[in-house]
Amino acid sequence: MALVVDRRIINRGPRTTPGRFATEIITRDVAPQLQIHYKSSKAKAYLKEGRALRVETTVNNPVDFALHKTLTAENWRALRRVGTETNARFLAAIGDDQPGLPDPATLESVVLPSLHDGQRAPGLRCGEPRTMALLASIASFAHVIGGLTNKGLRTQMAVLWKPDYTPAQATYDLRRLRLKGFITRVPGTNTYRVTAHGLRIAAFFTQLAARIVTPTLTELAALGRPRPPAAPRPLTSAWRAYETELQRLLRTSRLVA
């Protein structure tokens, strides 16, 4: 959710910082929108009159999607198809009607190497920095309209993982994502679409790491340090209580050295 700020950012160097700048907003009585810009076209999601979620795609130039500008019934149907498919992918990306969490068999098929039509797919090891950045890229909105490409993946991975992420690494990652069923190739192109299965698993692992695993491990690692002035979270308090009770039990049993 962002409000575009109409200002220029000037570097101290000889060149002006490129791009647009935005400020995050979560304010009462402000109607937020989620927008995805692709060339001269865009898709957006917002609350219609504060009552229902509405998703719409605006195609300002048919050439953005390799279509003709001539006003014919065929071109009109093609434009309608582009809008409908984009809206459907947008709704899927924001979690519309997603199934439940993966079961143990699904987890094993993702994190371990597997065979698909005689081809070996390396595992997507949860917790590995490169894998987590790759899954976060799949779960993002950047590819909803134009699709996922080698160049687009490199752009995202340069931010989420390493700036020197190479085309060969992107090709390797796209191949294992395809074999694992996370993405599917658009026929006759080098562009991929994220599958419902891929989006579901990628979003689950990304949210699990960002909201649970990383914050919890950070808290547990800090248990031996002086307590911060703020009140600890319930898990930290429970863990401290567990350790205290365990030490008391050991002393009572005379097992402490």
Entry keywords:
3 domains, 3-stranded antiparallel beta sheet, globular, alpha+beta, two-stranded antiparallel sheet, 257 residues, Arc Repressor Mutant, subunit A
Offer a concise description of the structure:
The protein is an alpha+beta fold and 257 residues long. The protein has helices at residues 73-93, 104-111, 129-138, 150-160, 167-179, 196-221, 234-252; strands spanning 2-4, 22-24, 33-38, 41-48, 52-58, 114-116, 119-121, 183-185, 192-194.
**Proportion in helices:** 40-55%
Reported CATH architecture of the largest domain? Orthogonal Bundle
* SSE string, helices as H and strands as E: EEEEEHHEEHHHEEHH
Give the mean pLDDT: 78
Strand percentage lies at: 15-25%
Question: Please, what is the CATH homologous superfamily of the largest domain?
Answer: Winged helix-like DNA-binding domain superfamily/Winged helix DNA-binding domain
Number of strands: 9
Number of helices in the DSSP assignment: 7
Determine the CATH topology of the largest domain: Arc Repressor Mutant, subunit A
Which outline best applies?
globular
Q: Uncertain spans, ≥5 residues at pLDDT below 50?
A: none
Describe this structure in words.
It is a single chain. By secondary structure, the chain is α+β, with helices and mostly antiparallel strands. The protein has three domains: 2-93, no CATH class; 104-212, Arc Repressor Mutant, subunit A; 224-257. It contains seven helices and nine strands, in the order E-E-E-E-E-H-H-E-E-H-H-H-E-E-H-H. It has a three-stranded antiparallel β-sheet, with helices on one face. It has a two-stranded antiparallel sheet with strand order 1-2. Strands 6-7 form a two-stranded antiparallel sheet. Helix 3 (129-138) crosses helix 4 (150-160). The mean pLDDT is 78.
